[in-house]
TrEMBL record:
<dbReference type="GO" id="GO:0015095">
    <property type="term" value="F:magnesium ion transmembrane transporter activity"/>
</dbReference>
<dbReference type="Pfam" id="PF03448">
    <property type="entry name" value="MgtE_N"/>
</dbReference>
<dbReference type="InterPro" id="IPR011033">
    <property type="entry name" value="PRC_barrel-like_sf"/>
</dbReference>
<dbReference type="InterPro" id="IPR006668">
    <property type="entry name" value="Mg_transptr_MgtE_intracell_dom"/>
</dbReference>
<dbReference type="InterPro" id="IPR046342">
    <property type="entry name" value="CBS_dom_sf"/>
</dbReference>
<protein>
    <submittedName>
        <fullName>Magnesium transporter</fullName>
    </submittedName>
</protein>
<dbReference type="Pfam" id="PF00571">
    <property type="entry name" value="CBS"/>
</dbReference>
<dbReference type="Pfam" id="PF26205">
    <property type="entry name" value="SH3_actinomycetes"/>
</dbReference>
<dbReference type="GO" id="GO:0016020">
    <property type="term" value="C:membrane"/>
</dbReference>
<dbReference type="InterPro" id="IPR000644">
    <property type="entry name" value="CBS_dom"/>
</dbReference>
<keyword id="KW-0129">CBS domain</keyword>
<dbReference type="InterPro" id="IPR038076">
    <property type="entry name" value="MgtE_N_sf"/>
</dbReference>
<feature type="domain" description="CBS">
    <location>
        <begin position="335"/>
        <end position="393"/>
    </location>
</feature>
<dbReference type="InterPro" id="IPR006669">
    <property type="entry name" value="MgtE_transporter"/>
</dbReference>
<feature type="region of interest" description="Disordered">
    <location>
        <begin position="393"/>
        <end position="421"/>
    </location>
</feature>
<dbReference type="InterPro" id="IPR058838">
    <property type="entry name" value="SH3_actinomycetes"/>
</dbReference>
Length: 421
């Protein structure tokens, strides 16, 4: 079951409607747990419940269901357990030996009735998995102070940062903290950038100050500045002081601008090259997998130095133009003269009009001295134009009625058997 997260879910017509995020089971003291269904995430970031009675096939890389999907937002019941979020990494007992849960297996006992039948375990010091029957293991019903997170992180390893952030947001605070402690700094920084501010602040507050500063260094300067804006002044100042001076400097500069201005939402690390660089060098820079598509869409040309704030800003070269030019062509010869830069004091609304007017995905930001200080990308603008709680409320609106249904009598009977309304 640890392989299921991220698996595409297809409706009877063969259309993908979402991806599996977890499996819902009901623990029973004397019997094997019954599988109630799957938690499926549909766009935009809405989690719904797919009863196991509707699942027709579970294959490598696909879950196929029949009927129609009820789009009511999934809410976990007190009697239910999430396999990925809550069972993995538990410490249980095999006889008198403490073991850690690595994975669990479910089996179709009879048509449309699934139970957990086996558990994969390992000792903490010796990672040699051992698979045993469910009946041989005890301790799943015990509340544990420190559960660990290695198995859950492994299950979520292939997920994009935004999807992992969505999964973390739905977990209890205790599990979020355990996962945050177990993630490496780079992965945690990527996930934090996709979480709502309240989750960001909560997770950062559970870390040691030195670790929190390290994670901020791994975040984009604009995202780090946004997070520090939301912290109490004293805490923000302490974390800035713990950051490496070279990493803290661009964040400090961004904090000097109003939060909802071009300067407040821009990234201070766009792709910048001198006019003597070649098209081949520019294309090599924008190929970096660490760049978002919006940042990689253009190269900004300036006089040295080429770190913000730069020397005199000369112009922008769009990647489509770069693809049409010989690799040896100098960037100074392929600058687009029709794009004027914007000023840091522009409001987000003014930046939006600018991007829409010129059909751009990013805009250069230049100060009163003619220096490039950053670039505003379309995703920066969207983040600040949407409501502050958009990550929490995403998907609350009703969806296409063809995906919804009112339960009939048979549904109620099945739901009673599965412990759900």
């Amino acid at each position: 079951m640890a392989r299921l997260p991220g698996t595409p879910v297809f409706d009877p017509a063969g259309d993908q409607i979402g991806r599996v995020r977890d499996v819902v089971v009901g623990l029973r003291i004397t019997r094997r747990p019954t599988v109630h269904g799957l938690v499926v995430e549909v766009q935009p970031r809405r989690r719904v419940f797919l009863p196991i009675t509707r699942v027709r096939r579970i294959e490598a890389g696909a879950v196929v269901f029949t009927g129609r999907l009820n789009m009511r937002r999934f809410e976990q019941r007190a009697t239910e357990t999430l396999v990925i979020g809550e069972m993995l990494d538990l410490t249980v007992r095999l006889g008198d030996q403490p073991m850690t849960v690595y994975d669990v297996a479910m089996e179709e006992i009879k048509p449309s009735t699934w139970e957990i039948t086996k558990v994969a375990l390992y000792k903490r010091r010796r990672r040699e998995p051992r698979t045993v029957d469910w009946s041989e293991v005890s301790g799943f019903d015990t509340l544990q102070k420190d559960q660990g997170a290695a198995g859950l992180i492994a299950a979520f390893e292939s997920l994009r940062a935004a999807d992992m952030a969505s999964a973390l947001h739905e977990l209890p605070s205790k599990r979020r903290q355990e996962i945050a402690r177990a993630l490496n700094d780079t992965r945690l920084a990527d996930v934090l950038e996709e979480l709502p501010p309240v989750d960001q602040i909560g997770i950062l507050g559970t870390l040691e100050p030195e670790r929190a500063a390290d994670v901020l260094e791994e975040m984009g300067p604009d995202d780090a500045a946004d997070l520090l804006h939301d912290l109490p002044d004293e805490q923000a100042a302490r974390l800035l002081a713990l950051m490496e001076p070279g990493e803290a400097a661009p964040v400090r500069r961004l904090l000097t601008y109003p939060e909802h201005s071009a300067g407040g939402v821009m990234t201070s690390e766009p792709v910048i090259l001198p006019p003597s660089a070649t098209v081949a060098e520019a294309l090599a820079h924008i190929r970096s997998q660490d760049l978002t598509p919006a940042v990689a869409a253009q190269v900004y040309v300036t006089r040295p130095p080429t770190e913000t704030p730069t020397g005199t800003y000369l112009g922008v070269s769009h990647f489509q133009r770069l693809l049409r030019e010989p690799p040896s062509t100098l960037l100074g010869a392929v600058i687009d003269p029709s794009i004027d830069p914007i000023r840091p004091e522009f409001t987000v609304r003014e930046v939006t009009y600018y991007l829409a007017n010129y059909n751009l995905v990013a805009a250069p930001v230049v100060d009163e001295l003619g220096r490039l200080v950053g670039a505003v990308t379309v995703d920066d603008v969207l983040d600040h134009m949407l409501p502050e709680d958009w990550r929490e409320s995403a998907g609350l609106a009703d969806h296409d009625a063809t995906l919804r249904e009112e339960p009939d009598r048979d549904d109620h009977e099945r739901a009673d058997r599965e412990g759900r309304p």
